[in-house]
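Suppose you are handed only these lines of text.
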Amino acid sequence: MQDFEVKAYPEMWHELNMDVERFDKARQMLGGAYTKIFLSQANRPQKMAYFDEMISEIFGGRVKELMQAKKEGRPVVGTFCVYIPEEIVVAANGICVGLCGGSPGSIPDAEKILPRNICPMVKSAFGFKAGRICPYFQVVDFVYGETTCDAKKKTWEILDRLVPTYVMEIPQMKKERDRTLWLEEVKDFKAKIEAVSGKTISSEQLAEAIKILNGKRQALQRLTKLRAANPAPISGKDALLIEQIAFYDEPVRFAAKVNELCDELDARAAKGEGILPKSALRVMVSGTPMALPNWKIHNLVESAGAVIVNEESCIGTRYFKDLITEGSLDMEKQLAALTDRYMRIDCSCFTPNDERVTQVLKEYKDSAAQGIIHYSLQFCHTYNIEEIKIREACQREGIPYLSIESDYSPDDVGQLQTRIEAFLEQVEG
Ligand code: SF4
Ligand code: SF4
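From them, the structure of the protein bound to iron/sulfur cluster can be written out as follows.
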């Protein structure tokens, strides 16, 4: 196993007013977990080296880039949801960084203030700011929340006491009048970004940003398609890691590195090489996002000898399945095309949301999976209830199916392992 560490930058963390002593312990734990979960895999693609480096520098190199951008007067915006249009931030020469929390370590900080019985992703993210244990949270100019679920929209009011927090109203339905409201909200978002950067966004800049983000999404689409090969050329853990890094890396560099990896995977697939033998069971995961460093389900499934071949999730295909029509230099038309693209995202916060059921079945077929694990974070009511429809669809189609509701604590790992192993036996038939 290679020597690996998540690098320490205590001086910079002091500059960012972090709780350095506590954060450094979390850094060491992350390095240990990464070594065990990722670097122990045999036969990994060589081009994963870049993504290993991104984790090694997660609390250093990329943060420095963000600090530098701020010094240059570029907006640095924290977000929590794939509904926030990052094209507008990129058009203003700014940086968008996802702040969703996937770690149990920050939850006690949140629970000093927030109720305990809300989604762990919200608590984890809030706790990172409350405990001053996330350099990204410390560096952003402001955060942009949204009104998707109740836990988030009410947390923004409290988070605003710690960091300036603006909220985009995302409707709950997708009727014509909802589209009208949405478009207005997109325009308000653009106005806010322009006010912070002190510059008006031109249609040329927006066109370029749309192209950049389309390029990033296309690279991730390519990776997803390659995972359909049997044997799978890359593990689900590594693919999930890349999907997580997508939320904080520089988009042009990231797309280039994903494409380099895809070239290697293409060559592997052509030679019939895989991360595991052809006989490994293929599982698709569907449901709530798995924010960094939430690798729990992937680790359990792949430790049991199966491979995960798709994530139907916001940290997964829901983030990149749709592109924005390019070519227009008319700001009104560009913003309309952008709004239409974002309205196609099928989050369970919408009602009705039957297009997600169709999408899950499509991705199951496209990824050549043999079973679906539905994953809901505890207290996420919308995904937990929508799970009924996904389960019914799988029953109708004869798809082996397992539903898991979990949080970030290690307490249920033993029980989940037993359930996953039993499920894999069922898939094997
Ligand atoms: S699951 Fe819904 S609320 Fe959460 S990031 Fe995705 S779109 Fe946003
Ligand atoms: S997982 Fe569910 S409850 Fe948690 S933030 Fe996303 S939509 Fe809200």
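What can we learn from it? DSSP finds 19 helices and eight strands in the chain. Strands lie at 76-79, 95-98, 142-146, 165-168, 282-287, 307-312, 371-377, 401-406.
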